[in-house]
Amino acid sequence: MCRIHLKAAREWGITWHVILESVHESMNQELEKKYKPTEEKLKILVHTQTKKKPDYKEIFYPQLINKTDITLTNDELTLLNKCQVFNVDYQYMLCY
Description:
There is one protein chain. By secondary structure, the protein is mainly alpha-helical. Helices cover 61% and strands 0% of the residues. The chain has a domain at 2-49. It has helices at 2-12, 16-49, 74-81, 90-95. The chain is elongated and about 95 Å long.
């Protein structure tokens, strides 16, 4: 592509810059025609599919409530709150 530009610049001389600018301008206009509908569709999709964040903050209740007189450390409470989604290691089971 570079060789073609250099050859055209040699042949057309000073007017080559005007020709090249005209070519670029017409290409940009054609590309804009092609991409404008897609950009408009994207704007509409983004506008319709973005959800507003709720004004309220959800309150989550703890999964574990200690109704015994045993005092648990924060690490132990964290482990117990993980519930069934966490596989308790065998060594923890031996402690109690």
